[in-house]
Amino acid sequence: PYDVLVVGGGPAGAAAAIYAARKGIRTGIVAERFGGQVNDTLAIENFISVKETDGPKLVMALEEHVKSYDVDIMPLQRAAGLAEPEKADNKHAGLIEVKLESGATLRSKSVILATGARWRNLNVPGEEAYKNKGVAYCPHCDGPLFKGKHVAVVGGGNSGVEAAIDLAGVVGHVTLLQFDTELKADAVLQRKLRTLENVTILTSAQTTEVTGDGTRVNGLTYTDRVTGESKHIALEGVFIQIGLVPNSDWLKGTLNLSKYGEIEINSHNATSLPGVFAAGDVTTVPYKQIIIAMGEGANAALGAFDYLIRQ
Ligand code: FAD
């Protein structure tokens, strides 16, 4: 069995594996796609101490760093279930089981869950084609790339309105499109939004297409749900803010999740299950960023080590 088994090979999982291996304990990492969301990222300008990099470069560096330690890497494997130590079974007493989709079972004294999250897509024509070419999901990451330009934010919940307020300070103009008849964000955010002069709010607006010139986004088409009319806005960027979905479906019923499906953790990154820790975008950590996921992964590994020496 492992001392620490990490599930997920994004920034959080990679950091957790390195921190665990550096303690000289038996460490494994199982990941469906090594690198996680970083694979889908073009410019990265907020990974502190590296002025500029891109996703594939950072994924390679992550992989090299993990491989320089004695870590069992199990790529292209999907975890499908987690089971508490079976107290009745003497042979595996005290071990946590991770069941893989392939049918195999891995056992470990502690587990770190770092399965990340994914942005909810609008699923309209143009969205996929112009990803990283004007279609963006993260204002903290990509806001500065649109300095002085006209962008849209799709989504009128807290994240959409927060994004619009954030972007209004960086870009030239923001058009916020909300499908519903009214914004759903907290009143205090809505009040703040309405004080901003370079923001236009459109409600009852259903985004139907992201348009482009073949290389970059040049606008967005929406249907006015009151009149039924289809309208086009010329702009250079579209931020889609309709939700971030944690990859925690396979954990439902085994440990405490928030109402959004995020794994609840404490300051040591411990979950509600003894010996099970979690880190990164799949958890209740409020901000989802590479550098934060790495710090959380390190914290979870140290939490797991602390747990192990007390067993
Ligand atoms: P992830 O990166 O999501 O990794 C999750 C890992 O778990 C993957 O290896 C995945 O394959 C694996 N996994 C999932 N489910 C299972 C399962 N059941 N079994 C086994 N393995 C599983 N952040 C920044 O700081 N700067 C940026 O510029 C930036 N730009 C971004 C651009 C885009 C397009 C996107 C999508 C995100 C961007 N982010 C950026 C956010 C950043 O990528 C995430 O915050 C970060 O990757 C989270 O790391 P993580 O390890 O928690 O999860």
UniProtKB/TrEMBL annotation:
Occurrences of domain FAD/NAD(P)-binding (ranges): 2-297
Entry protein name: Alkyl hydroperoxide reductase subunit F
Cofactor: FAD
Lineage of the organism: Bacteria, Pseudomonadati, Pseudomonadota, Betaproteobacteria, Nitrosomonadales
Top-level taxonomic group: Bacteria
Keywords: Disulfide bond, FAD, Flavoprotein, NAD, Oxidoreductase, Redox-active center
Family membership: Belongs to the class-II pyridine nucleotide-disulfide oxidoreductase family.
Subunit structure comment from the entry: Homodimer.
Shown chain mapped onto the complete sequence: 211 to 521 of 521
Species this protein is from: Methylophilus aquaticus
